[in-house]
């Protein structure tokens, strides 16, 4: 009997469940290590060398280097952990959020000021909600 | 005996803390938000609780993936503001209330809620932003705080019903405490927001308003709302709102007095909701 995971079909959304957390454990713990200033310095000096200290998959390391947050999330990353990469880069949370939507930061900020993205009737949701 | 006299509900967006710390209260972007908390600060001073029981979630700060307690109660004497990657917020150290916290832990665990007891922890924006919104920028926080941490990061998170029932157990524990303390309980997080994936930026004003209405008038029904509704309608991070049900569950069965209600979009990526409910004497 499979577990009930009714949240799998929500468009544009990956729920960080136990399965994703298992997949992303080392990726997220790498992110956590960036809470320490000395680790941020080492990571920035040589990203690849720092990432190679972690038992992460090649795909995960590439997604981090490319700052492809959607890919990181697919591979088990959680946004609160991934946010620490953005903080290391000196980027705002809104910049990171925009980067996942395919919008420019400016367009994203305008969308938020106009009341945000609708839960329904957006192209993402067509035929799904 | 101690009593829970009021419940305060508020979002805890980190950008609000940054705006306060950088003195941006009067910026056109932030001014409407802080205006919504002016009454709250007066109310907070006038109703001065002896202790605040503050329900919030940690955002990969004190708890990494090494340890993920569903419910954790702070029993320490004090808690330092955490360095979340850009240095600790310039806010006072939070004083705890170890005696009341230990008493509540004892009672609530005996009521079948398996709390994790935390004796050492830094507190992140989830706890300090609500304190800043209600208490301003004092040299010391006006009263002791008991941090109560809920896992809403890794799914499955506790159900609304379990949170509501936990609130009742906390209220029972407070009533059994001998000292005549005026305790306020705060539920924080939310409202609608999604911080991840192509659907980031989701806001659902109508859903949020219905949530506030139901939290006031029919919390029993609200407690039965399934997780899927939160995630689908209020965004993946909108699930934080289950924490509000802990605070609401801790109020008496009498209809509360709505002292204040405020709603604002946006604060960064998030819809901000705020309620103050008093238990009629």
Sum up the structure in keywords.
heterodimer, A: 129 residues, mainly alpha, 0% strand, B: 281 residues, alpha/beta, 8-stranded mixed β-sheet, two-stranded antiparallel ribbon, 10 helices
Greatest interface: A-B, 50 and 44 residues
Structural class of chain B: alpha/beta
Q: Could you tell me the mean pLDDT of chain B?
A: 97
Number of helices of chain B: 10
What's the story with the biggest beta sheet of chain A? none
Strand content of chain A: under 5%
Cα shape of chain A? flat
Q: Report helical residue fraction of chain B.
A: 25-40%
Q: Mean of the pLDDT scores of chain A?
A: 92
- In the predicted model, the low-confidence regions of chain B spanning at least 5 consecutive residues are none
- Radius of gyration of chain A over all CA atoms, rounded: 16 Å
What is the helix/strand order of chain A?
Answer: HHHHHHHHH
End-to-end CA span of chain B? 14 Å
Shape of chain B: globular
How much is the radius of gyration of chain B in Å?
Answer: 17 Å
**Largest beta sheet of chain B, briefly?**
8 strands, mixed
SSE arrangement of chain B, N to C:
EHHHEEEEHEHEHEHHHHEE
- β-sheet strand percentage of chain B: 15-25%
Number of strands of chain A: 0
Order of strands side by side in the largest beta sheet of chain B? 6-3-7-2-8-1-10-9
Helix content of chain A: 55-70%
Quick structural summary:
The complex is a heterodimer of chains A (about 130) and B (about 280). With about 130 residues, chain A is an all-alpha fold.
What does this structure look like?
The complex is a heterodimer of chains A (129) and B (281). Chain A has nine helices and no strands. Chain A is mainly alpha-helical. In chain A, α2 runs parallel beside α7 (79-89) and α8 (93-101) crosses α9 (105-113). Chain B is an alpha/beta fold and 281 residues long. The mean pLDDT of chain B is 97. Chains A and B meet through α2, α6, α7, α8 and α9 of A and α9 of B.
